[in-house]
Amino acid sequence: MEILFISTIAGLLQGLTGFGAGIILMLYLPYLYPVIQCSGIIGIICLFLSLIMALQYRKFIELKKVLIPLSIYILISTITIVIGPSLNSSYLKKGLSLFFILLSFYFLFIKKKNTQIKMSIFISLFCILISSICDGLFGIGGPLMVIYFKNKTDNQNEYLGCIQLFFLVNCIYNTILRIINDILLPQHLSIILISIPAICLGLLIAKKISYQLNINFINKITYLIIGLSGLFNLIA
């Protein structure tokens, strides 16, 4: 089945970069379900994915680096999930896609290798706000939070631990909210149960090969995924 292959790739990318599973799944699931329902399906799949990775990197988690962005993120995504079904989100999605393409281009071709973005309060809030809105509408909140946590953490293990705990708590909360608002329905259970083992297989593959890859290569993969997700959503 196509969903098995796609879910395995989603798990592989999540294991290498700390995000990406939701993006890969969102490229396929809208052919089966309305976009707002896809966000609920992706949310519960990513819940299990984030749980596995958060446990794997639990020793490296810095809780204080997670709590503040998580509090803001949950507040904004709550509002977005509640009003999301009544919105025509097509224009927002196209604009967001273009932004992801430009962001990817900057990191891959313009930004110097050894320079860091200075995460001012304004830039930090921008990353959190836009990501939480995207998560509420499309189930994709990863790209800008990757930028945020990569600049707030000291190494790859701490980054993976913090961002997976962040996603885990957020996925649990948003899944409950989507069930309450009849976005996530019983008929979605079958595809969720099919996807989770395949994603776990992808994670296992990522764990086996990650030690053979250097951090610069992983970062390039991360930003390439951001750009490709924007491109696919722009033309979809």
UniProtKB/TrEMBL annotation:
InterPro entries for this protein: TM_pro_TauE-like, TSUP
Keyword terms of this UniProt record: Cell membrane, Membrane, Transmembrane, Transmembrane helix, Transport
UniProt keyword Lipid metabolism, yes or no: no
Residue intervals passing through the bilayer: 31-54, 66-85, 91-109, 121-146, 189-205, 217-235
Protein name: Probable membrane transporter protein
Pfam families (UniProt xref): TauE
Family that this chain belongs to: Belongs to the 4-toluene sulfonate uptake permease (TSUP) (TC 2.A.102) family.
Membrane-protein topology: Multi-pass membrane protein
Organism the protein comes from: Faecalibacillus intestinalis
GO cellular component terms, semicolon-separated: plasma membrane
